[in-house]
Write the structure tokens for this entry.
Amino acid sequence: MRFDLQIIASWITAGARVLDLGCGNGDLLDYLRQHKKVSGTGIERQEARVAEAIARGLSVLQGDISVEVLDYQDNSFDYVILSQTLQQVYAPAELIRAMLRIGRKVIVSFPNFGHWLIRMQILTTGHTPITRELPYQWHDTPNIRILSIKDFERFADEIGFAIIKQVAINTHHHEERGNIIRFLPNLRATYGIILIGKGDKA
Amino acid sequence: MSEYASHDKSGVSVGLVEKKHLTFATEPPGLVLESGASLSPVTIAYETLGRLNPERSNAVLILHALSGDSHVAGYYSTDDAKPGWWDNMVGPGKGIDTDKYFVICSNILGSCMGSTGPSSVNPGTGSPYGLDFPVVTIADMVRAQKALIDHLGIPKLLAVVGGSIGGMQVLEWCISYPEMVAAAIPLATTTRHSALAIAFNEVARQSIMADPNWRNGMYYDGRKPDLGLAVARMIGHITYLSDEAMRLKFGRRLQDRDAFSFNFNVDFQVENYLRYQGTKFVERFDANSFLYITKAADYFDLEERNGCCSAVDAFARTRAKFLVVSFTSDWLYPTYQSRAMVKAMKKNNLDVSFCEIEADWGHDAFLLPSERLTSLIRGFLERVASEAGVKSHAL
């Protein structure tokens, strides 16, 4: 399993109720079911991935995450996960608020646009950066937003939710191994993974 | 529903099966129906495949649609031209695996394939019921199936599975007998018949009733309203396909000719197809049964029944795990109707999976061989069986 998903899995307590938004073919949910005995649900847009996840015995719904989260009752889940999808969400503040309503805790991960390679590319080439983590051209990217770990921290403060824990990692997202970055994470990490609680203002 | 049945390409089949009958409600008050009328006695035709495990926990009930019957898979004899209507899904190693599950399929109340319906003899008169047969509902069909499941000594069904009108029965089972259903697979169906669906059914019924041979439903001693029933079936077939399906299957291709006939014989392949389906249907189906079953579908509305006023309330008592499947080109029960049902299930914190399968073949896609549908059903059933602690003799 991908290194970022391994970190997310390590944060989930055994037997928890988990909702994975943009669950793909269900790798994380399948792992959590086997190793953490969670009760898991996934939401995914693409039919082929939904079908693969259901065929392997997972409970998965085909639909748009921003719409599907609205149907659940408050605190229906212990964890609501949004893994590497935030940068594709049209209304991120509304989505995270909805996630915090239906879940006790929220886990968000995203590619870090503050990484030094990205800064260097803009500075030296003048072109929109293309990296392993953000491999698209400006005109064909599904990533409609770009954000750094620092951006997310400020966003949390503005919206009013509490960052309980955060880990910055350096890896290609298909690799199973990676490093945790503790020194200058916004400059050196390729991904940020954040555990959020409801906070005072939320 | 048998239009698509064909020998399995892989040659795998459950083999020979036998149609059985259960007669019950022989004593007053008989089977009391939703309308308040009662029916006595009631006979239900059914078939079973595979073996019931000693714990009686591996039973899967399959519910058929408008024109189906209890013959879901396998053959009655070695020289049958066709197997049962869902042979591509039901059999050893198939999506609904008869090596693991005890599969039951019963003919619905009001049909003409062995269960009590308008063509059955009314014990009060000694003649066929005709229109004296009481109007039955989807809930009545399910009540009759419940009697069969009780008779078979099954305390709880592992799963109920069905498409279209069969899917309505699936939903009705989950609501009428929530303690008896562990999991449910409603396919290409709806929680309430739409005005569009009612409209098609009404045109079909009018076609039957306009046939001079129909004679208020008392035609069993003479010529039958074959023309009316054939046209009704033609209308049905249009709703089961889609614009895309018809374009791919027929286009504007002509039938056995190079130029227009400039008369009203068959010119186009699509005309030939509809006429053929209509003519074939009258050989095996009773026009009155068509009236009764379409009426039952039109009355179906989970949202306005059971003393409740919304789909969310309707699912409040069920604890079943759901796999809901719709098809992109189904214009009879479009995906938005499946989504509405999924939404109501989610609001009740039910365990629900949902997939919209990309398919050109319209409403009938649920009956056609599909790797995708097969793997969805197989994976879902394996999970719910494992979560229910089911041991089958093959596991």
Chain A has eight helices and eight strands. The mean pLDDT of chain A is 94. The longest helix of chain A spans residues 92-102.
